[in-house]
Recover the amino acids of this structure.
């Protein structure tokens, strides 16, 4: 008898909407590097990240949306599991996924702030600020494939579709 694949729990609707909206905005902005549209989309992405952080902080502990940080021991236990080719399912982000999500969100917020600062009279034309904004974008571009690789790896180890859990309603 063939075992049916395990289904990952679906993420909360606000989490899914914010995730895919931010992903789309970031993708568009990576290919539209300047101008009013770039700025506007960047501000919206940063605003959605703030909304996601607030939602996560207000969510109940143990829910998929919760942003309670894993302990150091939980993180290392997760790493040891991965080294053995195992993976315990989590209601939300696993310990390493939690830190990757925070890194992505921090980068998006930093991009929003540095982009906004370039429009201020005090920083108008400052090369260091524009270079910082560009470097942050490069780091974000490097983190995106790591995030996707983590999703693929965890989906295989857990034998679930984590992408489906971020799309389907239940």
């Amino acid at each position: 008898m063939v075992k049916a694949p395990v289904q990952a729990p679906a993420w909360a609707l606000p989490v899914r909407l914010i995730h895919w909206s931010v992903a789309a905005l970031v993708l568009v902005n990576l290919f539209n590097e300047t101008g009013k549209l770039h700025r506007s989309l960047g501000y919206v992405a940063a605003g959605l990240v703030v909304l996601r952080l607030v939602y996560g902080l207000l969510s109940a502990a143990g829910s998929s949306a919760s942003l309670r940080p894993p302990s150091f021991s939980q993180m290392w236990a997760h790493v040891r599991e991965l080294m053995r080719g195992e993976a315990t399912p989590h209601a939300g982000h696993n310990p390493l996924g939690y830190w990757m999500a925070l890194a992505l969100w921090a980068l998006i917020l930093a991009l929003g702030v540095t982009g906004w600062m370039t429009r201020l009279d005090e920083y108008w034309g400052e090369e260091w600020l524009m270079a910082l904004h560009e470097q942050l974008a490069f780091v974000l571009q490097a983190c995106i494939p790591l995030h996707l690789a983590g999703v693929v790896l965890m989906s295989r180890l857990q034998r679930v579709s984590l992408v489906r859990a971020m799309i389907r309603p239940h």
In short: The chain has a mean pLDDT of 89.
